[in-house]
Amino acid sequence: MTNWQCNKCGYSIKADAPPEKCPSCSNECSFVDNSCYTPDCQGMQSDPRIKKQNENR
Ligand SMILES: [Zn+2]
Predict the structure, then answer these.
(1) 51 CA → ligand 1 middle, Å
(2) Distance, CA of 51 to chain centre
(3) Which of 6, 36, 55, 56 qualifies as a cystine partner to 41, CB 3.0-4.6 A?
């Protein structure tokens, strides 16, 4: 399973594939894979650094 996050509202969902429409903001936004693959964010399902990149845009 992959952790997906809406790049507009920040809604995150766990699924094999991202939904076509965001259930939270109803936009056809692109979902970002923010699953954590590194051991330094153990216990967390998403990588906070990826979220930060989106906020900076
Ligand atoms: Zn959204």
Answers:
(1) 13
(2) 7
(3) 36
User: 10 C-alpha to center of ligand 1: Å?
Assistant: 6
pTM of the model: 0.61
2-19 in b/e form (b: 16+ CB < 10 A) is ebbbbbeeebbbeeeebe
SS3 53: helix
* Token pair in block for residue 54: 């989106």
Helix (H) or strand (E) holding 14: strand 12-15
Q: Each residue of 19-34: pLDDT tens digit?
A: 888 989 987 778 888 8
So what's the pLDDT on residue 10? 87
Residue type, 36: C
